[in-house]
């Protein structure tokens, strides 16, 4: 068994866990349901890589070796991976993901996700059946590497998003709806102001004549 290889895989998985946690804490886009779901998958798969990579190193200390060692590790890996897949599929943020987002996005994700699923399931099944005991360490390392590759692909799909964030779409919609009533209200106010009748020149003239007549009568009365 190449212990150094498994230790390096565990280190890389730990980097993915820390990286996903850092993004979820520092990035504003991580608050979007789509981003939260994919970050959760990255953290879970990274944690699974750490566990599965350190498992054979730990089991050797308990005296397991040969086919028994890899059968135990493959059984644990199968349970862990199935649990991760089930939890991700039951995550509310990812329910209906491929139906609600761009179709090309889902097809691109499954173009590599499906082969990785088959690689993980196939290598673990070969170990459990004992078909190729001579290469079981390599098969197990392949399964763990495939889980790590799945986490990497999930991170790539998180970065590549053909649709703008939901928050940006909502803000754009609010701005669009908010500007229309404002412009309409201003135009209607201008229309009302323009339609308001102005006092005619005749009224002003008659009022001025009445004022002058009253002033003249008061002046005449004072002279008498």
Automatic annotation (TrEMBL):
Q: Does the keyword Metal-binding apply?
A: no
Instruction: Give TM segment ranges.
Output: 6-25, 37-62, 68-88, 109-132, 138-160
Region ranges (Disordered)? 175-224
Composition-biased stretches (Polar residues): 180-190
What are the protein's UniProt keywords?
Membrane, Transmembrane, Transmembrane helix
* Name of the featured protein: Small-conductance mechanosensitive channel
């Amino acid at each position: 068994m190449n212990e150094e290889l498994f230790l390096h895989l565990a280190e890389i998985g730990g980097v993915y866990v820390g990286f996903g946690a850092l993004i979820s804490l520092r990035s504003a886009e991580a608050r979007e349901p789509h981003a939260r779901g994919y970050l959760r998958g990255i953290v879970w798969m990274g944690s699974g890589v750490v566990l599965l990579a350190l498992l054979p190193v730990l089991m050797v200390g308990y005296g397991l070796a040969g086919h028994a060692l890899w059968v135990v590790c493959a059984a644990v890996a199968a349970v862990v991976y199935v649990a991760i897949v089930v939890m991700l599929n039951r995550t509310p943020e990812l329910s209906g993901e491929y139906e609600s987002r761009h179709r090309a996005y889902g097809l691109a994700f499954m173009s590599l996700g499906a082969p990785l699923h088959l690689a993980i399931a196939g290598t673990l099944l070969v170990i459990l059946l004992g078909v190729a005991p001579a290469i079981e360490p390599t098969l197990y390392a392949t399964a763990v590497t495939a889980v790590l590759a799945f986490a990497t692909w999930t991170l790539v799909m998180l970065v590549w998003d053909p649709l703008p964030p939901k928050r940006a779409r909502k803000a754009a919609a609010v701005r669009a709806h908010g500007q229309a009533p404002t412009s309409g209200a201003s135009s209607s106010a201008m229309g009302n102001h323009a339609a308001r009748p102005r006092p005619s020149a005749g009224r002003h003239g008659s009022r001025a004549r009445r004022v002058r007549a009253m002033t003249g009568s008061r002046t005449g009365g004072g002279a008498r």
